Amino acid sequence: MQSVEVNLDKLMQKLGSVGKPQEDKQGPKKKKKNHGEKVSSPPGGSIKGGAAEQSVKGSSELRKKIKQKKNFKPDGGKSEQQSQNVSPTVNEVSSLTRLQKGMKESLDGARFRWINELLYKSDSSEAVRMMKEDPAVFHDYHSGFRHQVQSWPSNPVSHYISQLSSYPQNTIIADLGCGDATLARGLLPKKLRILSFDLISDGAYIVAADICSHVPLPGSEPSSSQMSEGEAQVVDVVVCALSLMGTNWPVCIREAWRVLKPGGELKIAEVASRFTDVDEFVSLINSIGFKMKAKNDHNSHFTLFDFKKVARTSRTDKEWTKVMSNGGVLKPCEYKRR
Ligand code: SAH
């Protein structure tokens, strides 16, 4: 145990000293303590219990915990701008011993699972607030996500890249919850037009938006009891690949409907273990104004759905609140400890 602590100290010194101003004297002391806590009490192990554990109280507690996790960052004292790139360089990582590398992976993995838990168990407004406060959270989440993707037998985004490649040129696709904008990058040579949205912009591909609140694209909802598909939309296809995360995710589907052209396509890929009842999930999506066209559950990890937008009438706020309260048909996604 002692040698583990010594190694952990060395690891943190190596990672923490990179580009770090000398005057940050409080840093190492604090970090050492927190790192110790994290190792002795791995947070990832406690993400259990599914939808029953979702609560407002839970989400604010989670936020507090995530804030504490900031102290675990190898570059703790950096400025906000610097902290967007918290990963040590290849040279720094390659100079670590095997044990140190293992420990760094455990720390990164634990932080990823904490952020993941917060994203799944709170309203998206909480996620927005957290990412604004500390953009490093977004970076750290995506590093962890990329790591997870490597262990999957297939990735829904790769499937969508090959499927959408055969769509007509100039098809307009909105990727809601685009992550690193892998879809947009993959379809770039195909002359399709991809509009990528996620919580934080990368200054190039990604437009910052809370997709569970408002997608900044044109389109209206019906304003009367007459069947309609709204007007002014420009989007042919909406993709939601593993992005229905906040407890208010049904709002994202409502937004997908609003921005899709009449008859437009909605493609959803979700982790198979999240479904409490696939039929209930499908009825919820249909009730927002869609018709399921295809379901692919051949893959053990993911289920993929194709929906088509159909006409509907307007709804009162009360009716919407009822529809939107059914988000529990998707459980939070739990990642195992690496
Ligand atoms: N679709 C990508 C990324 C999946 S990870 C892919 O398959 O590779 C899920 C993504 O959804 C994350 O990038 C997360 O930031 C984003 N996300 C979750 N909730 C969101 C919200 N309310 N608004 C915008 N993006 C959201």
From TrEMBL:
Q: Return the InterPro entries for the record.
A: RRP8, RRP8_N, SAM-dependent_MTases_sf
Which superkingdom, per the lineage? Answer: Eukaryota
Where do the segments described as Disordered lie? Answer: 1-97
* EC assignment: 2.1.1.-
Keywords for this protein: Methyltransferase, Nucleus, rRNA processing, S-adenosyl-L-methionine, Transferase
Q: Which GO terms describe its cellular component?
A: nucleolus
Indicate the enzyme's highest-level EC class.
Answer: transferase
MF terms from GO for this chain are: rRNA (adenine) methyltransferase activity
Q: Where is the composition biased (Polar residues)?
A: 79-97
Biological process terms in GO annotation: ribosomal large subunit biogenesis
- Compartment(s) where it occurs, according to its Swiss-Prot or TrEMBL record: Nucleus, Nucleolus
Function, in words: S-adenosyl-L-methionine-dependent methyltransferase that specifically methylates the N(1) position of adenine in helix 25.1 in 25S rRNA. Required both for ribosomal 40S and 60S subunits biogenesis. Required for efficient pre-rRNA cleavage at site A2.
What the entry lists under PANTHER family is as follows: RIBOSOMAL RNA-PROCESSING PROTEIN 8
Q: What family, per the record?
A: Belongs to the methyltransferase superfamily. RRP8 family.
Instruction: Please identify the protein, giving its name as recorded.
Output: Ribosomal RNA-processing protein 8
